[in-house]
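User: Is it possible to get a 3D structure for a protein together with its bound compound? The compound here is magnesium ion. I've pasted both below.
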Amino acid sequence: DPLMYRQGEAVLHILIAHDFEAYFVGGCVRDEIMGREVHDMDIATSARPDQVIELFDRTVPTGIQHGTVMVLMGDYSFEVTTFRKESDYEDHRRPSRVEFVDAIIEDLQRRDFTMNAMALGMEGRLIDPFGGREDIAAGLIRCVGQAGERFEEDALRMIRAIRFASVFGFRPVKSLWRALVAGRGMLSFIAMERIRAEFERVIEGPRPLRGLALIQRSGMINEVKYPVSYLEPIRESYIRTMENPLVSGLVKRLYLLLRGLNIHAEEAEELMRHWTFSNLIVERTTKLIRFDEQWLDRLYTLSPADQEDVQKWRHTWILLELAYGSDTVVDWLECYQALLQEAAQASYPVPEWKQLAELDFLNRLLDQVREWHEGMTVYELRDLAIAGSDVIQCTGKKGGPWLGQLMKQMLESVAMGELVNEREALLEHVKDVVN
Ligand code: ATP
Ligand code: MG
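Assistant: Yes, that's possible. Here is the predicted structure of the complex:
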């Protein structure tokens, strides 16, 4: 965004005009060099927070005790942080002392990885004391300084290393990897929310399989998993489908991961809560798993004779869709199509689809259920052309459990196409069945 860049330069300019040093730092410099989209720009300066506040009209003291002031410029905002160093880390996670320093290089020294420890000044002058640019070109994740020491200070950096390796498709250097494997136990000092935030980036990112493989190989999973005894891929095709282009977003990716690990809905829900995913994510993912379990359950328990009976299938499907809602079904259809694609192309054994004939059958079935899904005109009671009050009025009876049952039954009949969703037709039906 050239406009953001220009406004950021205006901030640098004002600081420099007042004899302070100022640079773009961290993720934005890295992303710029990598040719990735820059979403926000952080600025580091020799000015102290009170001096920053004085220099700009619009500021918000977002983290003043750490030296951070948000500066608003045009339609953009910039986090402006005073050069600082951190020391006396406690419990492998937080510095008990934050100290302002005079030189950018000292500020860069506290940062985690070489690629994140570069500064960009006016006229594109790059300050890169630890070889960040070279490491980016070689695709390497390397700590600033001794990996072992840096992980002792702040153990979150271990999972951040894996996150960046996964998202960028980079490789941790050997010394980093050794320190990570040796130090993985320290992850237990880190709040699960912070681990989850990094894990989330892995799952949502372009190469979740890479991140998962690194997490597994490092042995790190033992530090963060819940008492789940079998975090081993059982259904490899599910796990691999996480990288299918048809599948994006946290909910679908988590669903494929958990199903791939053969974790059932209830346990998956517990596990996601333990991992501190938001209620919304936990609920949507659990629902998707539960829908899948129920549908496949029906599928595999139907006798061959039933399999011929399209009406029976249709009834089962529509009842499930009414119970779970269209959002869940749409997510499921996308995942399932990707899954069948993956299974068809798999060059590894797919035990979950014992033979290709079964795959054919599932493909045809997918087309069929998609047709049923697209043909649905109602999903919930409020989609019906009449309300409960209309039924009361028309029958003159008092409300009670019968009313809910009747409404639900009408919803199913309309969804099945046995009843037309029109006021007159529905009232006619009510009269028929109530008397
Ligand atoms: P992105 O925002 O794309 O995730 P980022 O590099 O901006 O990447 P942030 O978490 O926003 O990551 O952190 C901003 C900068 O702060 C990093 O580039 C890095 O220099 C520094 N940093 C962040 N977390 C740590 C940490 N745990 N230890 C040391 N430095 C860190
Ligand atoms: Mg950032």
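The mean pLDDT is 91. Residues 27 surround magnesium ion (ligand 2) (CB under 6 Å).
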